[in-house]
């Protein structure tokens, strides 16, 4: 999964937002950075490049991601960790960053409370979360393709997980419940550019948990063909481009 994720989705969907978060992180001049849900390390690499003297600790709950990321961004200390139970002492970081990870945490207030515990007083928590599914044209097209391929019981992963924590007022309330002072909430729309809908479909169908959902429904080459056909009908042939909206939040411990 990390290989397909890194090859087909990171350059299109994740790198543009990693560049944004990196610029916001650099403006805080952090010395000790903890990254949660670091995945294959796109944000990690950018942070190491922009803040070479900072100590960067990168974590993810998935061992395969940690193994991939530690090769891609060896300048960070990599460690397997669930954001809800961080294996670090209190007050050890002045910045915690997380790109498109908080939506995956089953107990967000618990995770945010852990983040606050490992931050030094006045330290910052900087992260992003996707807007509603309808604001991400690539994933609207993907979901339409899945619904055409599986008219009964289509996979709902994108609607319920990546785009299931899409109300910034709810996110800010969860931060406040964990004791954070919310400093900034920003809506950000960036343009994604992919070589083709076939590449996008490969990324989504093999580099995300949709892979398991499709396999469970007996998916095969026909599913991929249907998804590509629907995505092409909506996004066009050849290189494709579409807006993607996220919220970026900064909170102080
Ligand atoms: C959409 S990916 C984002 C990865 C990376 N931040 C990026 O921008 O490419 C979500 C990541 O969250 C991780 N994750 C899911 N649940 C987690 C948890 N409870 N604690 C830490 N990481 C988690 C997954 O393993 C996955 O790598």
CATH class: Alpha Beta
CATH topology: Rossmann fold
Class by SSE composition: alpha/beta
Helical segment count = 10
Provide a short characterization of the protein structure.
The protein has helices spanning 2-26, 42-50, 63-72, 108-118, 137-149, 157-160, 168-177, 197-206, 210-216, 221-235; strands at residues 32-36, 55-60, 77-80, 93-99, 119-130, 181-194, 240-252. It has ten helices and seven strands.
Written account of the structure:
α1 crosses α8 and α8 crosses α10. The two termini are 34 Å apart. The protein has a single domain, classed as 3-Layer(aba) Sandwich (Rossmann fold). The radius of gyration is 18 Å and the shape is globular. Helices cover 45% and strands 24% of the residues. The structure holds S-adenosylmethionine (SAM).
Features:
Rossmann fold; binds S-adenosylmethionine; 7-stranded mixed sheet; 253 residues; single chain; 10 helices; alpha/beta
Task: Spell out the blueprint of helices and strands.
Blueprint (H helix, E strand, L loop, with lengths): L1 H25 L5 E5 L5 H9 L4 E6 L2 H10 L4 E4 L12 E7 L8 H11 E12 L6 H13 L7 H4 L7 H10 L3 E14 L2 H10 L3 H7 L4 H15 L4 E13 L1
Bound molecules: S-adenosylmethionine.
S-adenosylmethionine binds next to helix 1 and helix 2.
């Amino acid at each position: 999964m990390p290989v397909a994720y890194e090859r087909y989705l990171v350059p299109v969907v994740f790198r543009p937002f990693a560049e944004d978060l990196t610029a916001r992180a650099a403006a805080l001049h952090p010395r000790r950075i903890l990254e949660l849900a670091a995945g294959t390390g796109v944000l990690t690499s950018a942070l190491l490049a922009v803040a070479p003297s900072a100590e960067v600790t990168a974590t993810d709950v998935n061992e395969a991601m940690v193994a991939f990321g530690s090769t891609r961004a060896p300048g960070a200390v990599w460690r397997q960790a669930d954001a809800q139970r961080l294996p670090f002492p209190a007050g050890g970081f002045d910045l915690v960053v997380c790109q498109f990870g908080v939506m995956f945490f089953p107990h967000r207030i618990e995770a945010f409370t852990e983040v606050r515990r490992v931050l030094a007083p006045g330290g910052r928590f900087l992260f992003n979360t996707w807007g509603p599914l309808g604001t991400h044209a690539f994933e609207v097209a993907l979901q339409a393709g899945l619904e055409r391929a599986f008219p009964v019981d289509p996979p709902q992963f994108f609607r319920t997980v990546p785009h299931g924590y899409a109300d910034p007022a709810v996110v800010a309330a969860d931060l406040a419940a964990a004791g954070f002072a919310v400093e900034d909430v920003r809506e950000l729309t960036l343009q994604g550019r992919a070589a083709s809908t076939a590449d996008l479909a490969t990324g989504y169908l093999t580099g995300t948990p949709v892979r398991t959902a499709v396999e469970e429904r007996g998916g095969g080459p026909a599913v991929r063909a249907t998804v590509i056909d629907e995505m092409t009908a909506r996004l066009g042939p050849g290189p494709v481009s579409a807006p993607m909206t996220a919220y970026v939040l900064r909170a102080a411990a």
